[in-house]
Predict the 3D structure of the following.
Amino acid sequence: MPLLAAGVPVAWLIARAAGLVAFALLTVSVTLGLMMSTRLLQPRRQKDLMGWHQTLLWIALWMLVLHGGAILLDPVMHFRVTAVLVPGLAPWRPLTIAAGVVAGYVMLALATSFRARRRIGQRRWRQLHYASFVAFFLALGHALHAGTDLHGTTGLVFAALALAPVLWLTFVRILTPGRPAPPPAKSRPTRAPERIPAQRERTPVGAGSA
C-alpha cells in the first residue's frame, strides 16, 4: 500500500515539490543569463554570475529527474517510462506533459553546451542560448496546466513572479544597446630621431695643392 500524506501519495508530493523547485531554479538561471547579456554589471561580476548560471541549470535538471522519477512511482497516475521520456505519450494531458518533456530536453542541451562552448564558438553558443526562452515558457505552461497547485489566483501570482524579471530584462536587452567594448589603445607613432647632419670636414685651403 503506498505511503500517504493527508490522503495524497508521497510520490505525488515529491513530484510536485521537485517540479516547482526545478522551475524556480530555471527561472533564476534564465534571469542571471539575461543580466549578463544586458551588460548592466561589471565584467568581474559577469564572470561570477556565469558560474551560478551554469550550476543552477544543472541543479534544475537533477530536480527534473527527481520530478519524473517520482511520477513513475505515483500509484494514481500510472505513468510509464515512455510517457516521461517521449513527448505526447502521456496518458493524462499529453500536450501539457509534452511541453514539460521538451523543456527538459532543451535544458539538457543548454547545460551540456557549456562544455562545447569553445568548440562551437562564442557566437553560436550565444545563439543557442536563445533556446532558454523556449525552455522557460514551455516549463511555465507545464507548471500552470499540469500541476494541481497553481490554479486561479495562485497561478496568476506564480506566473507574474516568474515572468516579471524575465520580461523586464528582455526589454532592457532589446531597447538598451550593450556597452561597446573600449577600442584598443592606439600607440602613438614614435618619431624617428632627427638626424643631425654631420659636419663636413673642412678641407684647409691649399691642402692637397702642390
About this structure: The radius of gyration is 31 Å. The mean pLDDT is 81. The helical segments are 10-37, 43-73, 81-85, 94-113, 117-120, 122-128, 131-146, 153-175.
